[in-house]
């Protein structure tokens, strides 16, 4: 009788152990699903790859003026800070632009989420093309954990971020006019290989 009880106890302990083993598998499945959902909405980050430039593109890249870039980029960031959450002017007639404009923005900087940055939004001076600084509004993702700089006149992005944005900019500037057209920007946005 004692022997039977012992084997029953072993059997139930084994069943319990098996049940416990099953639990982590369920949790792993949940995590995988969450990661998949995030990747579907994530915008391509152009700083995550290296770019091989042609000789001509490299010459244009070498002429990139980081100081002028920081000044222009800072001006746009200041403009965006004071921007209303509704589209204005002719943009108000475009339903896609109106939707992108009224979507939630970064609470600290008033920047749109990257997926809501339309070409019209990035083209700050409305000349139908993107400068490096206009492109960088999209190309340099905001770091929500970055501390606010003590000095209000400090550059908004690091030299490394500015130079990485320039690397991809001159890679996607296929016609070499030192601006990105709508189609050139679309290639950059999708992370296309255009070499
Ligand atoms: Ca422009
Ligand atoms: Ca171009």
UniProtKB/TrEMBL annotation:
Residues 97-107 have a biased composition (Low complexity). Keywords: Signal. Residues 39-116 are annotated as: Disordered. Residues 1-19 form the signal peptide. InterPro entries: EF-hand-dom_pair, EF_Hand_1_Ca_BS. Gene3D superfamilies: EF-hand. The keyword Signal applies. The keyword Signal applies. This is EF-hand domain-containing protein. It comes from Pelagerythrobacter marinus.
